């Protein structure tokens, strides 16, 4: 499985961008040092020189970093030695097997496209997140990479989401479009065009379930939910916000002793709905494994994302996604 | 307050469209007959002739109705004698003081614009819904009237939402834009343009809170949340879906006896988050009081919307909104 390996060691390496998020690099290093990684995986942190001394893990000192307020494209051009850019270049050079960042989303997505390149046939990579439902989790994409989409992008998201599910062992995933009603004419012109294309596709690698409303997603009848990056992001964060509201209300209506008894389960559910605590969002459609954590991830959430990245690295996820996408293209042109 | 009254009776009349939703007209009539209305308010149902005999309330028999699958503009032109069109014409003629429909959203919005006319200066009316937060409820608009917006529409939604809040007694409401991050450059080009306009407006009738993420809305720090109709609708329905998921999970993790003990409070919370049970969405920006219920409203939800309409009629809401909007325009041109 492992080809073109330029490193001398035999293990897998996950790069971690310490910079440009709401946590201090020290806080992130503190939790990363005690995070139990799968056998064969090691971490490489990317950050400013002043944090190297007490890092306690492999460290690449960089000159600068991209902040959340920076303009994505300008900062990529002007800060070529940022933790984000250096990390992505090491991923490209196969010195890393995966890269995790909680930095500037736009810079990470654009940087990954420019440095790693897209998968063949993919115009815009997407951020993919998993959300709980009443049944199995649903894969949602895009949750923030492409804010204004064309129908072609939505169609490619459907293929990327399908490929992801196939790697997870779902033979023929069910795909739906996040929309404001189930009728084919509902929603934006891009959604209507994508609907017609997906519905009429010959031998699709997925079952097409049509339009899905936000209230039905959580019934768990689709494996993949397609949205533009703006809507997908609103969807994700609304779920997080409402979960927090409800659990807050429960704290007031449940007797205190009862609330404490079920507290672990409540926290578990909240974590599930709080994607900052979840393995982060996976950037699919580029040639490499890149995970984006939200800037407000807790250190524990960040560490969970790093563990998620380690799992993906161990399974050669990026190569597997490429194989699945190739199959899906071949399948369609048969 | 009551001008141009053409009816001989002194009370207020709320028109109710029985057609074009998932409930049978009989089921709606059954609940409307037993709904306790405020003193001085009576209902007028609009439906096909076959439901008139056992109606038990004032009834206007119409020839046809617009179904949810009909094309909004074509059906308005071709079905001029539909319950929706006849009801709106009676509202225009001041034979009604408010009109409630759970029918085709596009037809109701377009029909209201054509028949009632927009308020001066308003290009596109918006659907307004109220959502619970950790503090006071937030008013969200648009939740489905304008699927693809320009910045001007978003700005007008801010003024309409502000006027609504002022009528509710909030002197200077706080207004935010639903967005995927708090930075001014986040989101679509329309949002960025609206952001700059609202931020730089002289003597605005509101406090501008900038961009608000879905996860922060429920903290309750804004009174008015602005979104295009697509995003606002996704927001509303996602909240509904996730509430149902969480309460479902609670049913499994709470001991049965405890769950039953707090069941009324849970149902109350769920009703709050389920806008089908809520007073419906209010169409603001037209010359008249129109309430839209979702097609999947339960009969009880529908009756609640009718009660909400009765309250608005009693308070001459439509006239008050016009006064507030006039003030806001004068205020700005001072």
Summary tags:
16% strand; 11 strands; disordered N terminus; 12 helices; 2 domains; homodimer; 334 residues; Isopropylmalate Dehydrogenase; 44% helix; alpha/beta; eleven-stranded mixed beta sheet
- What is the CATH class of the largest domain in chain A? Alpha Beta
Distance between the termini of chain A: 27 Å
Say what the CATH topology of the largest domain in chain A is.
Isopropylmalate Dehydrogenase
Alpha-carbon Rg of chain A, integer: 20 Å
Query: How many individual β-strands of chain A?
Result: 11
Number of domains of chain A: 2
The CATH H-level superfamily of the largest domain in chain A is Isopropylmalate Dehydrogenase
The portion of residues assigned to helices of chain A is: 40-55%
Largest interface: A-B, 53 and 53 residues
- Low-confidence segments of chain A, given as residue ranges, are 1-9
Major β-sheet annotation of chain A: 11 strands, mixed
Q: Label the CATH architecture of the largest domain in chain A.
A: 3-Layer(aba) Sandwich
The overall pLDDT of chain A, averaged over residues, is 89
Oligomer: homodimer
Widest beta sheet: strand line-up of chain A = 3-2-1-4-11-10-5-6-9-7-8
- As a percent range, the share of strand residues of chain A is 15-25%
Detailed description of the structure:
The structure is a homodimer of 334-residue chains. Chain A is α/β, with parallel strands linked by helices. Chain A folds into two domains: 12-118 and 285-316, 3-Layer(aba) Sandwich (Isopropylmalate Dehydrogenase); 126-275, Isopropylmalate Dehydrogenase (3-Layer(aba) Sandwich), CATH 3.40.718. Helix content of chain A is 44%, strand content 16%. Chain A contains twelve helices and eleven strands. Chain A has an eleven-stranded mixed beta sheet, with helices on both faces. The two termini of chain A are 27 Å apart.
């Amino acid at each position: 499985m492992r080809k073109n390996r330029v490193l001398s060691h035999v293990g897998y390496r996950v790069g971690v961008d310490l910079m440009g998020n709401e946590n201090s690099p020290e806080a992130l290093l503190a939790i990363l040092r005690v995070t139990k990684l799968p056998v064969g995986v090691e971490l490489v942190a990317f950050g400013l020189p002043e944090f190297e001394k007490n890092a306690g893990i492999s460290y690449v000192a960089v000159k600068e970093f991209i902040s959340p307020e920076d303009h994505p494209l300008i900062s990529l051009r002007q800060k070529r030695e940022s933790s984000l850019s250096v990390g992505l270049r090491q991923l490209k050079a196969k010195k890393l097997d995966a890269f995790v960042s909680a930095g500037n989303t736009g810079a990470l997505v654009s940087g990954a496209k420019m440095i790693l390149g897209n998968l063949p046939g993919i115009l815009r990579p997407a951020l993919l997140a998993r959300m709980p439902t009443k049944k199995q989790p649903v894969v949602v994409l895009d949750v923030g990479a492409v804010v204004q989409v064309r129908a072609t992008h939505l169609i490619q998201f459907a293929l990327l989401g399908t490929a992801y599910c196939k790697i997870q062992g779902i033979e023929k995933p069910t795909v739906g479009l996040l929309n404001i009603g189930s009728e084919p004419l509902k929603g934006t012109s891009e959604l209507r065009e994508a609907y017609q294309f997906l519905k009429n596709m010959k031998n699709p690698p997925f079952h097409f379930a049509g339009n899905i409303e936000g209230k039905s997603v959580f019934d768990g009848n689709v494996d993949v939910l397609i949205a533009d990056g703006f809507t997908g992001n609103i969807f994700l964060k609304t779920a997080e916000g409402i979960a927090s509201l409800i659990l807050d209300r429960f704290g007031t209506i449940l007797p205190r002793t009862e609330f404490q008894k079920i507290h672990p389960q409540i926290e578990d559910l909240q974590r599930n709905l709080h994607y900052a605590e979840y393995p982060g969002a996976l950037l699919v459609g580029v040639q490499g494994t890149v995970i984006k954590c939200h800037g407000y991830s807790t250190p524990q959430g960040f560490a969970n994302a790093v563990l998620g990245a380690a799992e993906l690295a161990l399974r050669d996820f990026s190569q597997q996604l490429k194989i699945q996408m190739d199959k899906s293209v071949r399948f369609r042109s048969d």
